[in-house]
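Long-time lurker. I teach an intro course on protein structure, and each term I like to show students one example going from raw sequence to a predicted 3D structure in token notation. This year I'd like something fresh instead of my usual example. Would anyone be willing to generate the tokens for the chain below so I can use it in lecture? Attribution to the forum is fine with me.
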Amino acid sequence: MSFFRQLLILIVVVALGAGGYYAWQHYAPAGEPAGTPGTGTGPAGSAPPVRIVTVAPATLVDSIEAVGTTRARQSVEIVPLANGTLVEIGFAPGARIAAGAVLARLDDDIERADLREAEAKAVEADRALERSRALRSKNTVSDATLEQLVAAAAVAEAELERARRRLADRAVLAPFDGTVGLKRVDIGARVTSTTVLTTLDDLGQVEIEFAVPEIFFGRVGADHRVIADAAAFPDRVFAGAITSIDSRVDAASRAFKVRATLPNDDAALPAGMFMHIRVVLAERQALTVPEAAIFVEGTNSFVFTIADGKAMKRPVVTGTRRPGIVEIVEGLVAGDVIVSSGLQRVRDGAPVRILGDKPAAAA
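-- Reply from a regular --
Happy to contribute to a lecture. Here you go:
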């Protein structure tokens, strides 16, 4: 085959290709390039299957997410008020006890003897004072003697009070209602006023302390709700409220401390548990659509509405995004029916085949 014949064939092929491309660009049905929403890649006249939803108002929550650790509303280490030998333990680890319950006792033989001695001295001082007053009425004793006996009676009474207190200190009492921890010592151990016997936590409510970025300093208040969850309770949500806000912003982290309180009537939350926290700043009603119903062209967003069995391309202005949903600021009204899935084969103005019996509401 001659060179000119080959060249002629090549020119014809190129011309046919260019003509086909021109015809496809200028005479194809209106819509988007193949493979994007609005195209319609099926044979002419076929109606692509789609699923639809009805646009409806939903509650959008503006919130801040953080992490924190639980702490008991009240928490103390239980220590004896005196030195001695532990002779009784009155609690079981993990038990809930009332304020004033006896947690432990120390040996108290000496303190009981001291108390009996102080009681005897007090009785003796009171009787001496009574005799002196009777004699003073007959001018038998002087005022100085009477004053000395009054002072002696007061000293004996003070010594009696100290003896009672030293005996009372041999019992270790719970300072408030709470849950006791593990035993740290056993019966027979020699303890001092620095020996930790156990811990006591008030878990009727728990506090969570967490950090919030400084940009929210003016927006977080004591009236804001808090929603928390923990890995240990995957199917449970704990709701509470902010109770206090730090007055300072940390210069290194650029955040400030916030404390929230969560009810814990069943004592499900222990102290020290890691929690994921969401602070609810505001709640509002807004129109939302599924995220999959939105497609973008350049800087513009669009959806397909359904009217008379046909898909109509409509521009929208989007707002806040949440997992799976998008807020619609402009372009739709409540009750509009839009395509939620199957957009790849839909084209503007073309008929569609709706799957399902009725549209679901956009949540």
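Some talking points for your students: The chain has three helices and 20 strands. The two ends are 69 Å apart (CA to CA).
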